[in-house]
Specification:
The chain is built from 13 helices and 13 strands. It has about 375 residues and is of the alpha/beta class. The strands form four sheets. A seven-stranded mixed sheet has the order 5-13-12-11-10-6-7, sandwiched between helices. Strands 1-2 form a two-stranded antiparallel sheet. A two-stranded antiparallel ribbon has the order 3-4. Homodimer.
């Protein structure tokens, strides 16, 4: 039975259902009972508890820019490469690879495996670590295709929280704003920052960074930007990377690299992978999250890779099986188009050289 409440009206007091929000009062001649005509009825939604979330600044800014009619506007929000005319640039080598894929009648739209296209993951891991990397040669390193760099971070966070029981993570101040959200959603409970940027002197706050890392508790995950630090663009020197590695080793911290810009920082793939390769050469177990949004211009294809480097080849199979379960419950399997582009370019010597030329073009304009 509907809840009844008293409501006043000009002609008296009526007993009405509480959920009625709009009524028409029909008052006929004297002596005839008052009749109500219900026009609408509103029920309480279960979702009234949902509060509006703050806008994602970079996308809100991009939306404002798109809606702005000023012909002289410049979009400095979303981190995407532009031509001199301010237009998006699809790399010629990407166009070439897409045409090649379109002409291949053997390709189809079947699901990829849960861990993605192996040819893409292997090529990405090799590009990061180097073909002669000892862990690669010994079968102690492997990669899995992910939904760009963000997907790699999310899978990495859940894997570390679930299986190594890690709960504390450190990110630089400032850093890419999504790091915290991704790690909290991945199961971490304690996010802390370490000093990185000296605003006054426009350089790395080296003393502050070292102090914060030295005070980090054991088993903290330290998010390190492999190159082209976001948002400062200022990277540690080789000597500073050595000191960071010393602290990570001494404090028994876990290094997780975010490599979103390999090739973009210097135009050289080898140089931009220095930090990761150095830590590998020091014998660290680590994870590295790779994105091909920037260096391939594949922003909306969501193609990335999560590289694992471990001490013992025997743990690789169990680790892959557990990553498979995480991905299966998260997005089941990744898309194929971007993965086929990356695999095709990285595994074709001629296209690979052409792509490196594109990287030099983009990084050169940025440095200018």
């Amino acid at each position: 039975m509907a809840q009844l409440i008293l409501r006043e009206c000009r002609r008296g007091i009526a007993l009405l259902p509480a959920n009625i929000s709009c009524l028409t009062w029909i008052v006929p001649v004297e002596g005839v009972r008052l009749r109500l005509e219900v026009l609408t009825s509103r029920k309480m939604s279960k979702f009234t508890c949902v509060q509006p979330a703050p806008p994602i600044e970079v996308f809100a800014l991009n939306k404002s820019c798109l809606e702005d009619t000023n012909p002289n506007k410049v979009n400095l929000g979303v981190g995407a490469y532009r031509t001199d005319e301010g237009k998006p640039w699809v790399l010629p080598v990407v166009r070439k690879m897409e045409a090649k894929l379109a002409a291949d009648d053997t390709l189809n739209k079947e699901y990829l495996p849960v861990l993605g296209l192996e040819a893409a993951a292997t090529a990405a891991t090799t590009m990061l670590l180097g073909a002669d990397s000892k862990p690669l040669v010994e079968g102690r390193a492997f990669g899995v295709q992910t939904l760009s760099g963000t997907g790699a971070l999310r899978v990495a966070a859940e894997f570390l929280a679930r299986h190594l029981k890690y709960s504390v993570f450190y990110y630089s101040r400032p850093s890419w704003e999504n790091h915290g959200l991704v790690f909290y959603n991945g199961g971490f409970t304690d996010g802390r920052d370490y000093r990185y940027w000296d605003e006054k002197n426009r350089t790395i706050d080296w003393a502050g960074m070292k102090e914060d890392l030295q005070n980090a508790p054991e088993n903290s995950v330290i998010i390190l930007h492999a190159c082209a630090h976001n948002p400062t663009g200022c990277d540690p020197t080789e000597e500073q990377w050595a000191a960071i590695a010393d602290i990570v080793q001494e404090r028994k911290l876990f290094p997780l690299f975010d490599s979103a810009y390999q090739g973009f920082a210097s135009g050289d793939l080898e140089k931009d992978s220095y930090a990761v390769r150095y830590f590998v050469s020091r014998g660290f177990e680590l994870l590295c999250c790779q994105s091909f949004a920037k260096n391939f211009g594949l922003y909306n294809e969501r193609i990335g890779n999560l590289t694992f480097v471990v001490h013992d080849q025997k743990v690789v199979a169990p680790m892959k099986s557990q990553v498979t379960l995480i991905v299966r419950g998260m997005y089941s399997n990744p898309p194929s188009h971007g993965a086929r582009i990356v695999a095709g370019v990285l595994n074709d010597p001629e296209l690979f050289e052409e792509w490196k030329g594109c990287i030099k073009t983009m990084s050169g304009r940025i440095l200018e």
